[in-house]
Structure formats: structure tokens, C-alpha cells
Amino acid sequence: MFHEAMTAAKSQPWVTRLVIVACGGIWLSLVLLNDYENWQTVATFGYLPPNDIWRGKLWGLITSSLVHFDLWHLWLNVSATWILGSRMEAAIGSGRYFLFLMMAAFISATFELAASDSTGIGFSGVGYAIFGFMWITKDRFDNFQDVMTSQNIQLFL
Description:
Blueprint: H1 2-11, H2 14-33, H3 39-44, H4 50-54, H5 60-63, H6 71-92, H7 94-116, H8 124-136, H9 150-156
């Protein structure tokens, strides 16, 4: 009984669900506060000003990926995260998937900061990293086949 419960828990995409809840919760909080223009407010939820990051608050390179201002942006990102991320999490395991998400958020925000003096917001960079991983490894993992169709690949490209 215990072994079955542990196996079932391992097969659930808990990291994917946690990310979706975090993104949705932050978006809802910002909507309720209705104070997107105030750096102090948005920094509370993880979107830090560039100067703070340049001064060493490097966690802002990860947390900015959880912040969304627009409902359509949130919807696109959590939909892609659920459809692609849950499959990737099942394929590589929750621990590796979590590390992948952290690295993807850090790298995508770092490149954006270097190019535009802003980390950007949202999970799009991470979503594209998930897509890229799945596209490259689609022949290795069976559960990627049904979403790595030519139509979806064209959509992402």
C-alpha cells in the first residue's frame, strides 16, 4: 500500500502544478493590488529592477519568470507548461525537471537582461527551453511523440 502511494506520488507532475499555481497566484495578487507600475510592488512578487540584480540579487533572474501582467500571457504560459512540462516531468523525474526549470529561468532572464536591461517577465523563456528539450529528445521519450507534431513545432518556431 505504501509503495503504491509513493509510486503514484512520483508519477504526478507536482513541480508543474506548483509552477502553475505560483504563476496564477502572483498574477491574481497583482490584479487585486492593481499596482503594476510600482517597482516596490512588483519586486515583492519577484520581478526586480535591473539595478537590484546587477547588485547581486540574482534570484530575480529566476523569480521574474513567475510574474505575469496580462491574463493572455499567463494563459499561454501555463497552458504550454501543463501540456509540455507535465510530460517532461514524467519523463525525466521531478528533481531533474525542477533543476531544468531553474536553469532555464536563470539563463533566459540573464540573456534578456544582457540584451535589453530587463529580465523580462513570464514563463515564455522556460517554455521554449522545455519545447527545445522535447524537440531534441522526442525520439528518446515516447510520451513526447503526441505533442511534438510538425504543427506544434511550427507553432513554436
